[in-house]
Amino acid sequence: MVGNEEDAEDILQEVFIKVWNKRHEMHTYLNMEAWCMRLVKNKCLDTIKSGHFKFYKQKEEIDIAEEGHTPYTNTELNDTMTKVHHFINALPDKQKQIIQLRDIEGYTYQEIAEILEIDMNQVKVSLFRARRTLRDKLINAETYGT
Amino acid sequence: MGPERIEKLLKKYWEGKTTLEEEKTIQLFFQNEAIPEHLESVKPLFNYYHHEAVKEPLGQDFDAELMNRLNAGESRFGHSWRFALKIAASVLLIALAAYYFRFINNQSQKEAIATVTYEDPELAYQQTKTALLMISEKLNAGQKYTSEFKRLGEAKSLFKNYEN
To answer: Which terminal residue of chain A, N or C, has fewer Cβ atoms less than 10 Å from its own Cβ?
Structure first.
């Protein structure tokens, strides 16, 4: 959400500290993991809104080197991954968060609804829209090179 | 996995109707199997998800810094008490400064009043003369009555002499 690992780690530390300070209240939470994820989400949003990034430059490119690939194919792979990264970044915030939580982190619809504090129907509708948008953009990129 | 099965799963996937298990199946397909040409365009998406899901664990630096921050944050008073003390000290300082400033200001005004009469001798002389004339008028008014009392005393002496 914040676009770089350093700020993400900083936010994670702040959330750990908050959870530690509220350790006496832990028994009151039905779903600890969802609560922690909510703290992370809210902290990320606060950081983005305030613009107070400690490490300013956002990740622009994906850099991977797959085994068994030539440097040429690795470059091509990096380019397509970077393209996907930009397509996902261009989604509305809610859809972007749901793609992250479902397709990358593997959370259930119920867990996503608790973390984002929305109802399950909204989760399903947003996921549907996000996936369709990404599919259409990928097909267009393949067909028209955009 | 047969092409028909993957097509069905992908259709469900785009409609947002797949289970987590089915989504894992789709991921595995795009990682390991030969991809039909018409599905090549969406392969990068599942490669991206696979890449992002496999993250390096947090290093020992992370743990060390976290412990430092936790230790720095713990104190006898705690965050809220220290913050309240800082606010109270600031308010007290401002109040004292305001009181001192007002006190100094009053003193300056008193000195200013006294300075005006000393620095203008002609005015001081005129005001003093006026004040003394006022006093003497009052004294003279009283003088009229003292002369009456004196005449009363003389009349009394004459009366005493007559009786004797």
So the answer is: C
The tokens 């809210």 sit on which residue?
A42
* Distance to chain A for B34, nearest Cα, Å: 16
Burial of A141 (0-12, 13-18, 19+ CB in 10 A): middle
Q: Which residues 44-83 on chain B approach chain A with CB closer than 8 angstroms?
A: 44-45, 47-49, 51-53, 58, 62, 65-66, 69-70, 73
Is the Cβ–Cβ distance between A127 and A98 less than 8 Å?
A: yes
- Structure tokens of B145? 């009555």
Does ipTM exceed 0.85?
no
How many Cα neighbours within 13 Å face the side chain of A39?
Answer: 17
More confident residue, B18 or A67: B18
Left, alpha or beta for B2 (phi > 0: left; psi -120 to 50: alpha)? beta
pTM for the model stands at 0.58
Of all helices (H) and strands (E), which one includes residue A117? none
- Tokens of residue A103, six digits: 């397709």
Contact yes or no for B49 and A104 at CB 8 A: yes
How do residues B7-36 score in pLDDT, each as one tens digit? 999 999 999 999 999 999 999 999 887 888
Is residue A13 within 8 A of residue B66, CB to CB? The reply is yes
- Cβ atoms of A69 and A33 closer than 8 Å: no
| 3-class DSSP assignment, residue A108 | coil
Nearest residue, CB atoms, A138 vs list B23, B44, B58: B44
pLDDT, position B84: 75
Residue of B14, B24, B53 lying closest to A135 (CB–CB) = B14
d(CA A38, CA A118): 12
Give me the amino acid identity at B69: R
